[in-house]
Amino acid sequence: MSDVQLSLAAYVSDMLALEEHVCIPFKSQRDDADFQTMLQAAALVGRISALAEAHIQALRSALDSLGGHPPHAAKSAFTNIEGWIASAIDKMRKTKVPKGLRDDYTALALCTAGYNMLLTTANAFGNDGVAQLAKRHLQDYAQAIVDIADALPAVVLQDLTASGVQVEDAVSARSQAEIRTAWRMGESATTTTGSIESEATLNRTRGGTYPTI
């Protein structure tokens, strides 16, 4: 195996290890009775679980074509992070469904960062096949993250209602609109000093009393 193939195979192997870790709690949620009581959440975790399984098969094929080997269960320190996230999601499985989706969001964000790295590495090495695979998987999970963010207000309110809290029907739509606005404001960055600054950053600069988190 060439040095280029060896390096690229290492990135594919890392990504495969991550997908295999997060797929476990995704499948647990898919089959969990608490998730099944919330149709929107059940549909989400069912689709995410299917995506993860398809990604795993594609990554295994890519790794095989590069002459690489399947990742060892404890192949790197990075795997410890992956395992922690998978464990965190699994522990939340029997509590509140919104918290489970929140942790799914976190796991998917880590996966998108991994695919960002894999895509860049494949482009650097001129391997269009792996680059396109990383791009497809990145798009899959980017959409899944958007879908979770969009669904969370309704799922949270359904959970609150099931707990006996009285909530107005309009709260879900209002919260969803406010969340979407926040994301749009974050995406509409403005360049002032050669760097990209979000609307929140500019507001903090303009006014000393603007709240920080």
Report Rg: 20 Å
What is the chain-wise order of helices and strands? HHHHHHHEEH
Discrete helix count: 8
User: What is the number of strand segments?
Assistant: 2
- β-strand percent reads under 5%
Strand numbers in spatial order across the main sheet: 1-2
When the domains are counted, the total is: 2
Helix content: over 70%
- Note the gap between the termini: 49 Å
Look at the structure and give the CATH class of the largest domain.
Answer: Mainly Alpha
Low-confidence stretches: 190-202, 208-213
Q: What is the CATH architecture assignment of the largest domain? A: Up-down Bundle
What integer is the average pLDDT?
A: 81
Shape label: elongated
Specify the CATH homologous superfamily of the largest domain: Ferritin, core subunit, four-helix bundle
Task: Kindly report the CATH topology of the largest domain.
Answer: Ferritin
User: Which structural category do the helix and sheet elements fall into?
Assistant: mainly alpha
Please summarize the sheet with the most strands. Answer: 2 strands, antiparallel
Helix and strand topology:
Elements: H1 3-30, H2 33-36, H3 39-65, H4 77-92, H5 97-124, H6 128-162, H7 170-187, E1 190-191, E2 196-197, H8 199-206
Antiparallel strand pairs: 1-2
Describe the protein in words:
With 213 residues, the chain is mostly helical. The protein folds into 2 domains: 3-163, Ferritin, core subunit, four-helix bundle (Ferritin, Up-down Bundle); 173-206, no CATH class. It is 77% helix and 2% strand. The chain has 8 helices and 2 strands, in the order αααααααββα. Strands 1-2 form a two-stranded antiparallel ribbon. Strand 1 (190-191) and strand 2 form a beta hairpin. The longest helix has 35 residues, at 128-162. The protein is elongated and about 65 Å long.
